[in-house]
TrEMBL record, chains A, B, C, D:
Pathway: Purine metabolism; IMP biosynthesis via de novo pathway; N(1)-(5-phospho-D-ribosyl)glycinamide from 5-phospho-alpha-D-ribose 1-diphosphate: step 1/2. It holds the Pfam family Pribosyltran. [4Fe-4S] cluster binds at C260, C406, C462, C465. It comes from Kozakia baliensis. This is Amidophosphoribosyltransferase. GO terms for biological process: 'de novo' IMP biosynthetic process; purine nucleobase biosynthetic process. The gene is purF. GO terms for molecular function: 4 iron, 4 sulfur cluster binding; amidophosphoribosyltransferase activity; magnesium ion binding. It comes from the Bacteria. Binds 1 [4Fe-4S] cluster per subunit.
């Protein structure tokens, strides 16, 4: 489809409600040479949080510059002239992931707008739970929407706020939205960071040794550009970064941490440190707990790469069963490889994973993976492992059963499609074709994160995808739209 | 520039004020099979009104479909699948021309927006003279602008109007804008056409024999799809077209015709009939009047193709001097051919025109062109004709001297760059290197259009580019911005 | 289809035999600054000879540079960096036209090859009549073909020639091929031009006032870069251009002129001068002869633009009937506009031409066109003219009836599809729906070219498409392949 | 650079000599449904052997079909229509890697040519050592070269061979070339596979359970399409595959195995089985031998991912030191990410690898990698590991020191740039900044491959990059060109 093709448009609230939930990464730089290039590198380090589009807005004390595109950071910013045209010492950037083909260029963040008080660029990681409700009210008021992103709701709220300063307007907007949001924003003078009152999504503050500040979704983005970790932005905290340093505001009445536990299990990069915990160590420790809880007699422990590797290592160490790379991941898999016939479609998961027969043949295998969603991928992997000669396959999962969808920024199918929501453990084991199946317990999970167990951790994490305990009101979903 | 690259952004009113004036063509179809394809064909016939971008929005009783792109209509809609995806029996389309490289995709019309009352698509030919003033006020009110087009001002006024129906909102918006505008708009039920109270830009109504209606900037767009001409939309008239036929509204207090005389001289296609006059006949008749007013002894009458052809034919017939195609136009000239060196740049106009030496050598030549703007092109053509052996060159121009810029939708440079604004007739003749120079008189011009002369035509046309008599207030230009 | 997609390949001789005949333009420059840019401009002036692909090879005394692409010259060479990368003071270029979608990049000329004696680039306008026969012999000998062009046959013959110098090898090759060929070739030291012994296709020599030489298919290519016309290369002449000037060789035993008369009628640009005759004057004079031979009572003379314009002017002058632009050509027609439905397909020719109703309504019309091939286009134009209100339509054609295909470089359908090959004059008139139809006589045609009539011109032109008298043996066609 | 841009051309033998050495993967399918799709999947599994271009030629009993492109297999064949257009039950394919930007489309394999006896497509993995010498002779003879690949030398030798059948011609050609070559070729009836007399590069035979045969560089390509491993093609063996099954020819006098030992160490995929050995097991066993030979007191064993992982695992098991993923690889690194400033360039290797601080901080680290080439990458990784807090870094390399370039198909820099060629072990340790450095011994390496040590393996592998003992004559390099 040529430049500018928008397949269809439709203003119905239904579509907005059913849009794919976004997973994202954000970066902000203030006061550093090559701010746009640094931002691009940070986005590159956060590529695992969103691979379908990327954008950067920079400012050079005179004007804003912008570049956005569909694809990986390395593709969108592959031309040195593009980076060179993004002048200035401050910049914000965004990676975007969406589950359908509907990724339109107009949805790519950061969003930029001219206001009475000047320009403002905004990028955001997370999901608003009252976006559709607010959008309906804003449209009623005469606001014109150009995208289907939550971020534009934010921007309109800023535009129509009666407060005078951009800061007060941003706070005004933040108080009206509900949901998970880690926001970075850029004005002609300031870099602003904001985390929702529960701090569901991460946001990290870093500093350059030669001066200048950095905000990013994960510490791995600081590492790639050599920025030093300062601290995590606190839940409900707003930071204003400029020549005077970092000013902290706490505009919310009752912030308290409910950090997303799934960031530890799967979503964050293993070399990141979130809320003081090493993601890698957390995953390894879950493997240790899993081995204690659900040990089994076997010949090899095999991870489903890459996310299952640390847990499998922990399981192997704790169980004494040898660790083997029994499954090889093909790192050249793009999203574009079209499988043209039924015969080939059946080859399925083998595009991404292949069995390492010598490590599996004639072995009793403990297979360690991070989660079971629909179960179809698990089934294919189990079949592949058996076809390579495994005599037994015991699946161990480093998360509790995923029974509920996420509304806070992780892409998950609806409840009816989650295997654990509709099957007992035994039925699940049968569905994926394993000899035994076990998930980490809540106690084990939270012990691995340094608590004494589930009770102690209670109310300190968002684990709604496992428990259904949603800490932020699901306004749009609960039909308050029509109210 | 890669997908999605917006070189720079800047919200300053200055830039908005200095934006290139747009020349455009619009088409609307209601109740016809293949509405989008018909619209594309109509835009193709109107390609001379704008070559840099094209767009179509269609509706199929359920939803809107949109496709836009930079380039000619035939390029933007070259793929049958693109046209096929624009479903429905109603559609509107737009051709756009802009004089600088700043043609951004987000500026391409029609503009579409979701309103509380449903979707609306709007396209517009002309120029608002208070667009910057209104824009400033709208931004102050919290409106977010995505483009730099006048059309978006219109759309925001519709969005914030307190009237209930889309029709009342559209009229409300129309009453607030000043300028030249021929608008086509599409709602889920209606095709709407609107001409400003002076009817500066054309808008024509046509009908399909098998049912269905068409609006277009010129009759040549009706001809290409076999639609029958019904009538010109009247100045200040708004038509609502749907299953009940064509309903006419006259929302303005004091409409009266001030049709753009330059449409006859240059801008419209010769086979179009505007306000009851054949453009081709008008141009030929101007040539006749020119010969009467400014006859000269010569051997050949040579047009500067293509726009000078009919006037040169009229001149030849009236003067008895043979008509010759002494200049050949190269029809393959694209806009993209970059001339890399000074030497080649000096070859200049020869990219588009070449001298037909046998028709010029040793001849006294009457050269007929439609207008002199900066004079640089005229100079190059005269030099080329002399280099081909013409012994005398007498330039005859089928318009009065262009002394003032147009603010109503024709791209012209500012006054200081108009040769006629700063030179006497003798100085102009010298500047372009001719033996004699004459422009059509106002009396001659209006006689050619069927009036008894200038007096009778007075106040019935907009001829501001020749007279400086601007019939519509130049709000933005006159600095009312700061008021 | 992505870069490098070759839909299918097939080595059969049948396909090679049935390949589309090519129409082409060639340019060569020696000893001029900006040689590649000058070549691009020359190709631009020759764009009417081939619009589907363009290529340039240059040499800077050290190495060769090459750029080729599909599309118009202005598109292929739109980037100043591309022209800039084609360094050197000598260059050759080629425009290519092919009638089917099979234009592959590997077929785009000039062809370049490394030989034992160094590099050589070759481009050619025309058609070899023993290309398939030679190709078969070369393949048998172990030659590998990369393209389906005649030019590659030439290049292989040069490669395997036993002569020592490139010049002798080129002559050796030329003596083995049969057909129409105007060749330009570039070696590290020389620009070479060669015209076949009958000189069927044109080739012109020009000179730059500041030094340097130019070869081109037509004089219009000299004009655009300001080169002075020196002379036409003679039939069978080979010129070697380098620092010593222009050396002329006559390697063929019996050269004599059989210049293609269709170049005058249709193919060449009107402002070109070929073999001493102005194309424009020739066409006008044909119109004069037509009026004398086939005068008719009528109200207007209307050309089918653009090629019919000069003849119609001549007809009008000779007959005293007013000349009118009753048909307008839309110059924005690209090749890519896909007509998606039957309804729209029926609108047919109107994409390119539209009727100018005021010049046709109620008139008896003499319609002047250059030729009738299949008759379908003529029929559509006649219908359009009648629909615009013409009361009578008299078609006058500025060529004799086209009864035979061309094998020498003009694209024509096979005999069975030529209307004149299968219909009497009366049947043709009925088929295209005119009140009367007349073609120029051979006597009239050759009188218009300055001869006393057909007899005097006999054997001085190739008019095989009208007479079937093919002056060059049709080796491939006549089945000598199997011999 | 647009379609068809070939930056420069130059026929000098020097350039041909200095062309980048190619690493490649090949696939062939005979008698299987969806042969092209299967070939694409096989190439996808072999993507690690070449990432810059891919091509497939298929045959459907009537004609050949071809598609080639620059980029990954998944990009070149991303469009289902492209695969769909490659009809037939037989196909061959090729992945290509080249170290410079000079990857031209015309160099992409398979090469196809029309011969007297019909069409033939050829693809080849390896490097000829007398390609330039042969090429010079062929050009002298009148052969035209279109590419700079060794494969085209092969194809020309086939074209000019005096033998009658394609098979005899192929053998004739094979006897004239020297070097490492695993060739797959496709005729209208047969799939042909050929391995050079020393079998330096791998070539595997597989079978589909539902009928049909497959050739591939590695067994992992069989696995992805579910083909069963039959056997390795033998050194010097030529197989002809058609409806009669697999016919084996042994055209060479003295074949004997000298398989490339570097395929085990680095180049092949770990899940492949080559010459009966599991690559994964071989690598793990090298790690075991390394630990035995060069044990060191440390806290963690850390692989440089991905190729260092199995050896590090073996080292960890044998040494009892815990295995940790102390370095994380970013799998989204494309080749296109341009690092725009010096500051960013210095960040270097961090684009691809990042330190996992919690696994390194305060630890004595054994770092396991597959080889040291220039040493620059090693230095950056060591620095990164130290910056993450490692107190000691001990580097262990799973190959002997790389002291000589490969001329048989593995891309290596010239000798002067190989760190081991110019430095002692102590100097190397200092250059890369480690506390200790050890390479596997030859005895250890060959023990890991199942031999009793170096002596037993002597003459059974090509280990020229470590020993300088080149088993195939380096004709071009040794200046026999001028003879």
């Amino acid at each position: 489809m040529p430049l500018g093709a928008f397949p269809t448009m439709n203003g119905s609230v239904d579509e907005v409600l059913n849009r794919p939930y976004e997973e994202c990464g954000v970066v902000g730089i203030w006061g550093a040479a090559d701010a746009a290039a640094m931002t691009a590198l940070g986005l590159h380090a956060l590529q695992h949080r969103g691979q379908e589009a990327a954008g950067i807005v920079s400012h050079d004390d005179e004007r804003f510059y912008q570049h956005k595109g569909l694809g990986l950071v390395g593709d969108v910013f592959s031309d040195a002239r593009v980076i060179g045209a993004l002048k200035g010492h401050s910049a914000i950037g965004h990676n975007r992931y969406a589950t359908t083909g509907a990724t339109l260029l107009r949805n790519v963040q950061p969003l930029y707008a001219d206001f009475e008080f000047g320009g403002l660029a905004v990028a955001h990681n997370g999901n608003l739970t009252n976006a559709a409700t607010l959008r309906q009210a804003l449209v009623k008021r005469g606001c014109l929407f150009q995208s289907t992103t939550d971020t534009e709701v934010f921007v309109h709220l800023i535009a129509i706020s009666l407060y005078a300063t951009v800061l007060d307007r941003l706070i005004d907007a933040a108080k009206q939205v509900k949901g998970a949001y880690s926001v970075v924003a850029l004005t002609p003078t300031d870099l602003i960071g904001l985390r929702d009152p529960l701090g569901v999504r991460p946001l990290i503050l870093g500093r350059f040794s030669e001066g200048g500040w950095m905000l990013a979704s994960e510490t791995c983005a600081l590492d790639i550009v050599g920025a030093e970790y300062v601290r995590d932005i606190e839940p409900g905290e707003l930071v204003v970064i400029n020549g005077d340093g970092v000013r902290s505001l706490k505009p919310f009445a009752d912030p308290h941490p409910r950090f997303c536990v799934f960031e530890y299990i799967y979503f964050a990069r293993p070399d990141s440190i979130l809320e003081g915990h090493s993601v890698y160590e957390a995953r390894k420790q879950i493997g240790v707990e899993l081995a204690r809880e659900s040990g089994v007699e076997a010949d090899v422990v095999v991870p489903v790469p890459d996310s299952g590797v640390p847990s499998a290592m922990g399981f192997a160490v704790a169980s004494g069963i040898p660790f083997e790379m029994g499954i090889i991941r093909n790192h050249y898999v793009g999203r574009t490889f079209i499988e043209p016939t039924d015969q080939i479609r059946n080859l399925g998961v083998r595009m991404k994973h292949s069995a390492n027969r010598p490590a599996l043949e004639g072995k009793r295998v403990v297979l360690v993976d991070d989660s079971i969603v629909r179960g179809t991928t698990s089934r294919k992997i189990v079949d592949m492992v058996r076809a390579a000669g495994a005599t037994e396959v015991h699946m161990r999962i480093s998360s509790p059963p995923t029974k509920h969808p996420c509304f806070y920024g992780i892409d998950t199918p609806e409840e009816s499609q989650l295997l654990a929501a509709t099957h007992t453990l035994e039925q699940m084991a049968e569905a994926i074709g394993v000899d035994s199946l076990a998930f980490i317990s809540f106690d084990g999970l939270y012990r691995a994160l340094g608590h004494r167990g589930r009770e102690e951790a209670n109310g300190r994490y968002c684990d709604a995808c496992f428990t259904g305990d949603y800490p932020i009101e699901l306004v749009d979903k609960e039909g308050k739209l029509v109210a």
